[in-house]
Amino acid sequence: MSFLSITHVSKSFGPTTVVKDFDLSVERGEFVSFLGPSGCGKTTMLRMIAGFETPSAGRIVIDGEDVTDVPANRRRIGMVFQAYALFPNLTVHDNIAFGLMVAGRPKREIAPRVAEMLALIGLPQLGDRYPYQLSGGQQQRVALARALAPSPRVLLLDEPLSALDAKIRVSLREEIRELQRKLGITTIFVTHDQEEALSMSDRIAVMYGGRIEQCGAPFAIYNQPATRFVASFIGTLSLIEGIKGEGATVHVDGQPITLDAVPEVAPGAPVTLALRPEAVKLDASPDRINTLNGHVETSQFLGSVVRLKLSVAGGSVLVDTFNRPTAPPPRSGESVALHFGPSDVFALAPQEANPSALPAIA
Ligand code: ATP
């Protein structure tokens, strides 16, 4: 049995259902992200795990205990919020001690445990400071220490990095992940930042409209998106319109494109092809399959890569080419031929038929 089971959980506020039949099993020590756009129900689901909201339907079980009706303060859960939520009038030491006192820990255990937590977050000297004397990143590390001090069974992180500036965000996400691995604590991380979710998670539950659209390892979510929404929400995609041919073929302006998998629609039906910028190559030769001709609309030098926007029949295609000082990229207006492998392109069914359906990609 998994460590955290969320079984068919729904949540309505009045007539509006904001979490719909959410079903997820999380293993002990796993780091799972809830990723989705604003308003998709991530925080509401997290708050139900914490016990701050009661599900309208379904059960939540932690380590074999059904906690659905257990009050928040008896669930043994640690939580870190987006805003630094530290007590401004308490020192760092007392902020961390607070959770231990609430948990009823004997007084003699508190000081050594606070010292241990300060060492764990790399701030052993800062126990006497007040929150206003800390940087944003330091405050979030203290918030993390406060959440972890009582040894919770599950750690819940609600966009804990979103208020920080970009550089600290990247270093802190590595620190959080390292700490989580070291402690082996089962963690749920809420974010709307796909890069955060991709870089930190064992698994990502991509949410849309209160439902899980797809749950899987970052590699699978990125490379085998199961729905139109996941395909477009994660990473960058170019869309080209085509017409379904025989078998696994789609025609774009008369050119046959071969794919590994296509939607089950009749030949002649419209099909949209979706391509990642890194999957498209420019060194096309006449005997290659999946070749399209076009010309360069724009060329953006980004340092390690050059992002080209190409105009082809059926749409525009973004292409990332590695910067090579000896081979300048093609310039605006230049004619180019591009190609891609059958496994590097997804085919999306017509939206009218099924807005989020994609064939399984082997
Ligand atoms: P964000 O990234 O913006 O925080 P989210 O995915 O975490 O978004 P939620 O905060 O879970 O989304 O909100 C989901 C929906 O539920 C929103 O439309 C929100 O307005 C609504 N909602 C949340 N809490 C309540 C409440 N207490 N009463 C009524 N509606 C609520």
Automatic annotation (TrEMBL):
The entry's family comment says: Belongs to the ABC transporter superfamily.
What keywords does the record list, in alphabetical order?
A: ATP-binding, Nucleotide-binding, Transport
Species of the source: Fulvimarina uroteuthidis
The answer to whether the entry has keyword Nucleus is no
In this chain the ABC transporter domain maps to 4-234
Classification via Pfam families: ABC_tran, TOBE_2
- What's this protein's name? ABC transporter ATP-binding protein
Family annotation (InterPro entries): AAA+_ATPase, ABC_SmlMolc_Importer, ABC_transporter-like_ATP-bd, ABC_transporter-like_CS, Mo/tungstate-bd_C_term_dom, P-loop_NTPase, Transp-assoc_OB_typ2
* Gene3D superfamilies hit by this protein: 2.40.50.100, P-loop containing nucleotide triphosphate hydrolases
Keyword Metal-binding among UniProt keywords: no
Instruction: Give one GO molecular function term.
Output: ATP binding
Q: What SUPFAM superfamilies does the entry give?
A: MOP-like (SSF50331), P-loop containing nucleoside triphosphate hydrolases (SSF52540)
